[in-house]
Specification:
Blueprint: H1 2-37, E1 47-51, E2 66-69, E3 73-80, H2 82-85, E4 93-96, E5 111-120, E6 127-134, E7 148-150, E8 160-162, E9 174-184, E10 190-207, E11 212-219, E12 225-226, E13 233-234, E14 247-248, H3 253-273
Antiparallel strand pairs: 1-2, 3-6, 4-5, 4-7, 5-6, 8-11, 9-10, 9-13, 10-11, 10-14, 11-12
Length: 274
């Protein structure tokens, strides 16, 4: 009987230890869950960027601790005027205008438009457009400013003029056309002189890479449309400030380049003297 009592006491103590072990294991599991709540996890795999916190720092809810960047594909966000968005479509090919100048043909990449917003920005009236580019070579950096180019229309042959010939600071874009005018001098002899006339211009396709723009027609002061002829001369430089019938002098391209080089050398000489 004594041995039976000792056995039952030992069994009760064993059951108490097992219950305590079970309770401690439950507490341990709860602590493990609590520890998991204090771990930071990134939703994507990538490269660790700037860490904005230090050990022991108290953080507010929603604060950024670090940045993880995946640059295998990179999105370019643009804000496009409403009149240009009408010519954009999903999956259109997009190219970089500035970055590609420093790239070889093998390094050049092309992306595609993947998103066009349904509404414009209330502050600016522009529409958000996103293009996606492959970037495994890491040539493109995050948070940088680039200029995107999308070809919306294509033409093989058309009459075009340099962008420099456009007076785009006017209410309506204009150009200065050089015309030959015959007048009699004091001796009664006919002389030819070149004068300029200002016309509003109707533009077509614009090539940003070659800096040229298609010209469809000219519009005079009476709102009459005039055809564009191939032998017309347009003022490319120094047109601001010229009025109708102002006389100009025609120079050959070689003379113009020599004049520009001479002016550049004068400026260098002045800088050297300073």
């Amino acid at each position: 009987e004594k041995a039976s009592l000792v056995y039952k006491d030992a069994e009760a103590k064993r059951n108490a230890v097992l219950a305590k072990e079970k309770s401690l294991r439950a507490e341990l599991e709860a602590m493990d869950v609590q520890i998991e709540f204090h771990k930071l996890r990134t939703p994507i795999a990538g490269q660790l960027g700037t860490v904005q916190a230090v050990p022991g720092q108290t953080l507010a809810i929603g604060a950024t601790v670090a940045e993880v960047i995946d640059l295998d594909k990179i999105d370019v966000l643009c804000f496009v005027p409403a009149r240009a968005v009408a010519r954009l479509r999903l999956d259109q090919v997009a190219l970089f205008r500035d970055v590609e100048e420093s790239m070889s043909d093998a390094e050049k990449v092309e992306g595609h438009i993947v998103f066009i917003s349904d509404q414009a920005q209330a502050e600016t009236g522009t529409v958000a457009v996103k293009a996606r580019f492959p970037n495994r070579a890491r040539r493109l950096r995050a948070n940088t400013l680039v200029r995107l180019q999308v070809q919306t229309r294509h033409k093989d042959d058309c009459l075009s003029i340099p962008e420099e010939a456009l007076l785009e600071d006017q209410e309506k874009t204009a150009v200065l056309v050089v015309e030959t005018k015959k007048e009699k001098n004091e001796k009664g002899e006919e002389e030819e002189k070149q004068v300029v006339h200002r016309f509003q211009v109707e533009l077509g396709v614009r090539d940003r890479a070659k800096r040229k723009v298609e010209i469809l027609g000219l519009i005079d002061a009476k709102e009459k449309k005039l055809p564009v002829e191939k032998d017309m001369l347009f003022v490319k430089e120094g047109g601001h400030g010229l009025e109708d019938d102002d006389e100009v002098t025609l120079k050959k391209e070689e003379e113009h380049e020599e004049h520009k080089e001479g002016e550049a050398k004068k400026e260098e000489h002045k800088e050297g003297e300073k």
